Amino acid sequence: MAGDEVPSVSASAVSAGALDVRVIAEFDGTTDVVEWWTRAELLCAHRGVDFGAVVPLRLTGGAFAVWAQLPVDHRASLAAVKSALFAAFALDSFAAYDAFVTRRLQPGESADVYLADLRRLAELFGGVPDRTLSCAFVNGLPDAARQVIRAGSRAEALDLPSVVARARAVLSDDRVATVAAATAAPPRGGGGSRGGTQDAEAVMAARVPRRPRSRRCWACGRLGHLAAGCPQGNGTGSGAAVPDPPDRVTRRSVFAWCGRLVAHLPVCGWLRPAAAWVKRRANAVTRGWDDVTTDALLQSQISHVHSRLLAADPARGQWCWTGDQAIVWTDASSIAAGVVIETPCGGVMEDACWLRPGDAAATHINMAELDAAVRGLNLAVAWGVTNIDLRTDSATVHRWVDDALSGRARLRTRAAGEMLIRRRVDLIRQLANELELKVTVTLVRSEENLADALTRVPKEWLRDECEESKMSVTADDGAGDSAARGQVVVGAGAADAVRSSVQSVHERAGHPGVRRTLFFARRDVSRDVTRALVRAVVTTCDVCRSIDPAPVRWRHGSLEVAAVWERVAMDVTHHQGRSYLTVIDCGPTRFTVWRPLGRADAVEVTDHLEQIFLERGAPKEILADNDTVFRGRRLASLVARWGIALRFRAVHEPGGNGVVERCHRTVKVIAARRRCAVSEAVHLYNVTPRDGRTADTAPAAGDVPLRAHSVTSYREQYPF
Asked: Does residue 198 register a pLDDT over 50?
């Protein structure tokens, strides 16, 4: 058919510029159509040849099939042929944009080639401004080059040519450095040609490995290991020599000496708090790191630690242990908080201690014990332990943590730091829940607590510092600092000095009571300290008064009265799903009456009470708790008619109505043990002698007289 015939191409049109069409590569649809079209069009324009006549001659395969299916009039149109080929073989706008976004600078590719390809991809989906093209160009560079360009001055104000020029320079410097390093490096293997020279790609990809720094052990002086893994001993423990104390005592030398003793060892025992105490003393007597000090207390403490280390060095252990079970010992004192992590087989994995700051005297000892428990759990979690046995010698902390983990009871505390305590206890509970820890809490004796040694320092150090606190430093107005430090005088009055010392001991011990403060004061201050002085210090302590606002003793009273049926106690109790109104005589008889209730409301309670009053008379006084049944208007009206005084016990104090509460327990125990009804248990309670021997002491043996004035008063108001 005429429509299917391929139009002939004029040979003169093709050869007018003496162009050999074989110079233009054939296009079959497998290569980039944009690049092929651009190159062929430029060549034809350079030779002065009609490009529209050359295109059909260089199409093959699928590309020629696309051209052949065009209408005859469209085949002669260069724009129609270009549109058909681009639609068939070029990227669409979506694919071009995806390639534009993911385009990165390839290894060995120059910055200009990379930019040109970005431009080509951008033109396929409509083009982008130069600013957007500049951002995409920088984003596709290697990390090092991108950071250098972005860190340069006025990087935001650079135009696209300036950005390309800067990238060209940065990439050129990196390439030169890489080639130089690869050339200087010895050849890897025997490959290559002519004496083992590397090709260009191998040179560009070569990298010189960094030589690791040699590690030197200060314990033996050899290379290749640290003191913690020294085969001759890991520092102070495991057979290594104990380092001598510094000859020139400065803060820097003391800290360095203490660091050599404990810094790299997992287990140090008493040495850890002692070293921390020595460093604290060095901080107190020096201002700068290199100030020389001749402080006698510091010298004696250093000598004590050194001599004790020579006799028995506690530092030992290696940083190697695996498992998911551990025992965490925690303890705290007025000096420090200590933690010991122990394996189930009895080996100590790690210990740690933290000196309490100077202002921590205002923190209660229970708070310090709780902080030690939190730190112990954190240390165990760092070892990867999931089954933790937390052991403490504080009964209060044991109750707080155990109740929080088991959910058995809510936290009850009235301390000044109640919210801080709740926050720490909740932290332990959340830690166990989120990390799926199995935590058990055990109460141990203080002498059995392994962490106890980490909370103590020699008592001579405390006594010396306490004696020093009694002295005040004075200086003349014209004297220098050295002369000022040399003049020491005693305080204004001996009594004030002793009281101040007792106050310091009381704060350092964690604000205990009179008895314990007296013990510490007689141990650390003087054997002549009196109990009256200690009591005066404790009762006037602001911290103790804020935590325990009632330091005086209350005079204990009694619910019992001498006359029979003068005062009765009543309550509503429950047994085996049924409610009972209980009334008991607070006099010598302890006679009780239990009435079953259909509904525990005010109507039924007042009806039963009125029936009891009619049978046995009305008492002078009724003692009840704060139940809404007893607080209602109906009961108030009843007791007003009978002329009875109604008293309520204190809130949250069940002991305020202890007579009836004790009766509840006894009757319920009788009913449970005999497996009988409540009425039979009440009968047994009333006929059982109170002293266990004489029948006259039974509650039912006492006479419960009727109170005539109460009945008369009732009949006067309600005649019948």
From this structure: no
Q: Is residue 347 located within the same domain as residue 448?
A: yes
Average pLDDT estimate for 203-219: 43
Q: Say yes or no: 437 and 358 in one domain.
A: yes
Q: For residue 224, is pLDDT > 70?
A: no
Q: What's residue 470's pLDDT?
A: 54
The answer to whether residue 558 sits within a structural domain is: no
Element (H, E) at 595: strand 592-597
Domain count, the chain: 6
- Does one domain contain both 706 and 621? yes
Beta pairing partners, 197: 193
Which residues are CB-contacts of 203 (< 8 A; sequence separation ≥ 6)? 178, 179, 182, 183
pLDDT of residue 593: 95
Mean pLDDT, all residues of the chain: 77
C-alpha distances in Å from residue 547, one per residue of 352, 363, 536, 541, 550: 30, 10, 17, 10, 9
Question: 618, 715 in Cβ contact below 8 A?
Answer: no
Say what the pTM is: 0.40
**319 falls within a domain:** no
Question: Residue 193: inside a domain, yes or no?
Answer: no
- Residue 641, phi-psi category: left (phi > 0), alpha (psi -120 to 50), beta (remainder): alpha
Distances (CA, A) of 282 to 256, 293, 460: 12, 8, 17
Least confident among 1-5, 355-359, 469-473, 545-549:
1-5
Indicate if 299 and 337 belong to the same structural domain.
Answer: no
Q: What is the pLDDT of residue 182?
A: 47
- Residue appearing with tokens 């020629």: 64
Higher confidence at residue 300 or residue 319? 300
Q: Whole domain around residue 525: which residue ranges?
A: 460-474+490-547
CA distances from 512 to 34, 291, 335, 480 (A): 90, 39, 14, 42
